[in-house]
Amino acid sequence: MHAALFLPLFDRLSDPHVAVAITVAAEEAGWDGVFVWDHLLWDPPVELVADPWIVMAAMAYATEHVRLGPMVTPIARRRPQVLARQTVSLDHLSDGRLVFGVGLGGDRGGELSRFDEELDRRARAELLDRGLDRITRWWAGEAVDGVRLVPGPVQQPRIPVWVASRHPNRAPVRRAARWDGWFPVEVPSPDALAEQVAYAHEHRADGAPPWDVAVQGLPDADPRPWRDAGATWWLTRFEPADPSPDDVLAIAKAGPPRV
Asked: N or C end of the chain, less CB within 10 A?
């Protein structure tokens, strides 16, 4: 089981210098990854929010080994052609360490409604599927609507794509089963995770490569029951309301949990 930090880039963690320092410390302490939240706004009392792609670029430049990625980017409120460029550039900058987490997104803090973004979940799901199709075809060097975006990514056959779902919805689990990993949100128990992992594997293609399952929990949670339920990644997360950089840095320096 791999272990990563999962950072909300809010308030005191919105300072890119702080996020980079935590990432460097995590790499030195043996963590396998550092993933970040991708949001424009969040509910009060959160006020300060950093752009994840700028912060991840700084993280990539300052490190050599840890995996990096957004958990998760809502493709429906982004332009796929811009994401294709961003993901490939970050994959090159990191020498092939990017994980591309994607999902429908939500309206926390009004980050959809305040900017006239799509609010209908079904429509956002269609935008997600269509956007993923276009992005991965561009990664593969194809011309999409007559346009090729080169170069392609370092990682082959593609940058790993992890798809988020919110328990107990099953359609996103089926979507995740078609890609490289799954990021379940609000799963109430390891037993519930095991049930959904079994359901996902029913929809995996025969002969499909290994598939990642990334679950999250607070620093004092025990990841072992989740590992036994099928998780391959444990993401130590922090509360979004003004997380303490000193506390997060101390956890990073202490190293990943023993599993």
From this structure: C
Q: How many residues are there in the chain?
A: 259
22 contacts 68 by C-beta, under 8 angstroms: no
Task: Return the CA Rg of the chain.
Answer: 17
How far is it, in rounded angstroms, from Cα 204 to Cα 243? 38
Confidence of residue 242 (pLDDT cuts 50, 70, 90): confident
pTM: 0.96
pLDDT in tens, 195-227: 999 999 999 988 888 999 999 999 999 999 999
- Are the C-beta atoms of 249 and 25 separated by less than 8 Å? yes
Query: DSSP E strands: which ranges in 80-148?
Result: 100-103
Please name each of the domains of the chain with its CATH number.
Answer: 2-254 (3.20.20.30)
